[in-house]
Amino acid sequence: MTEQKLDIEKRSEFDIEINGTVGKPFVDHPKMSSRNCDVFYGDKQAIFDVNLDIANNEIIAMIGPSGCGKSTYLRVLNRMNDTIPICRVMGEHTLDGENIYDKKQDPVLLRARVGMVFQKPNPFPKSIYDNVAYGARLHGLASNRSELDEVVESSLIKAGLFKEVKDDLNKPGTGLSGGQQQRLCIARAIAVDPEVILMDEPTSALDPIATALIEELMDELKENYTIAIVTHSMQQAARVSQRTAYFHMGKLVEVNETDKIFTNPEHQLTENYITGRFG
Amino acid sequence: MSTTTKKIERHLKKRYAKEKRFRLYGIISLLISFSFLAVLLFTIFSKGLPAFQQTYIKLDVVLSESALGVNKDSSIDDLYSANYSKVIKNSLKEMFPGVKGRKKKIALKNLVSKSAAYDLRDKVIAQPSLIGTKQSYWFLAKDDVDVFMKGDIDRTLHESSRRIKDYQLAWIDKLLKEGRLEKRFNTVLFTAGDSREPEQAGMGGAIVGSLLTMLVTLLLSFPIGVATAAYLEEFAPQNNRWVDLIEVNINNLAAVPSIVFGLLGLAVYINIFGIPRSTPLLGGLVLTLMTLPTIIIASRAAIKSVPPSIKEAAIGLGASPVQVLFQHTLPLAMPGILTGTIIGMAQALGETAPLLMIGMVAFVSDIPSSIFDPSTVMPVQIYLWSDSPERAFTERTSAAIMILLGFLVLMNLIAIVLRKKFERKW
Predict the structure, then answer these.
(1) Does B319 touch chain A (CB under 8 A)?
(2) How far apart are the C-alpha atoms of B380 and A111, rounded to whole Å?
């Protein structure tokens, strides 16, 4: 350790090499997995050879400095990068063992099983009811009005929003506060009954109290769903996740149990990041 | 205060003076343009308002069987061709006995419009029991009488420089004294088709023709325009040579002189496809090509302005691209699309040149009942009337312009109402 520290004082942090992923990137019976993931935007490569497993019913946090590719990687998991014409995704990615980039795989069906919550709350300019019911209506999950009511109600309850809005279900979704809007987006994603929920910095636009509510929510949700969350806040990663993956410049540096990453990281870069030397 | 601040203070005076001058120029230009507008509207309205009233003359007619040549039980064909003008001539002779000479007799007959005989015919056919009775009816007066009543013939001029001679003036004065001349609201202007006689001429045919043409144009250009815009914005491959070619051509189409579309209509629609000329169908097809670029360009801008976060949310929930388009993008882009459509429609309403080429300049006196009937449109009607020599057509031309302007204002109001209705806040 001392030798390494001496070396660091002489060289810059960024000279530290990344040779493969350190820690435990793989698990038995993963819910989703990626092997040899490369992502290109035109000629520029954004993700370099990422191998990662996401276990069932766990919350895995992806942390790293800005521009390190964590959001790009997250979007690989539900094929959202398909909407960007210059983006190319390589590698094998599976959900329950099935290749999600297979030509026969319907991305629409995939996105019904792998839901997404975005950084800035984006409720539709419709009523709260119609927002939550949209996914259910889209996929034909309810055959009549009362079933739809049930779906909407249970989703709002699971998202912890029902009590606050139960008398105002016809008010526009855009009239809620930021934290409520984000919970509405979570309810909307849950209403489709996905298996995995991807969250891209869901609380970065919210105040601490709204953030705390959503973190509580995530803890309850993990009983029934698998959650992958990208976050800038290391404290948040430490609070909510079981495993944490650290990305750096498009490469996956280290994956370990959250406790271990934040108390005794294996890679020097990880240690530099969590102690605040950069990022 | 430091010296810098003093410098700034002095410079500040110059800056404020500059701004004041700029504001002044702006206000002056506004005043000039408003005064032009005011002069334009004033001339049109002052010339056109009299046309909304029409002079009617009251005649006592004796529907005698001997004069008409038919009786109550005659067939419809006979009733149709009975001699109603004789009845009217008799009525006038009774009011003004002792009129001698061919010229004066014709002048006497010309106090009343030629349509009076047809009016009488329609009344008798509707109620044959009227034959043998004496009735009082109000008929349309001839245009010379009408023009005089509106003050456009100067009494003080010498007889040889007036259209209405002294003996005619005497008759008119007598009719006025007996209360047999009165001005009423001119419904003929709105209901009748075109006519060589000014008092019988109306915009009815042109209004219906314009509406039918607009309908065809709207039904064709709106779906095609919006679909094209949606395709180019959402589904077309980027940086593709063919797509770029289409885009350049659409933008160029917006700059093509409108008469070229008329030539296209002549060469392709009439010659190759054999679509009947002068019809609203043909007019609509020609105007569609003119309106498409406007709608496409406005719709593209509206679709581009839909926030991508909404589309991402929909895709993330599992909506297919077509569902995103119809359930999210188009509803949110509606205000912009509608504005572009109404602008295009308003332009098309006032288009004359291309329609002249395809034959809508013909004299059409019937009101069209379908898109396959020959018809004319409002701007063309205005052009035809402005060409006519009769004095009474001057005011009618201005009145027709007022009606056209009224339609344009109405269309803009509809656009504003629709915009407000579809406006969303996100």
Answers:
(1) yes
(2) 58
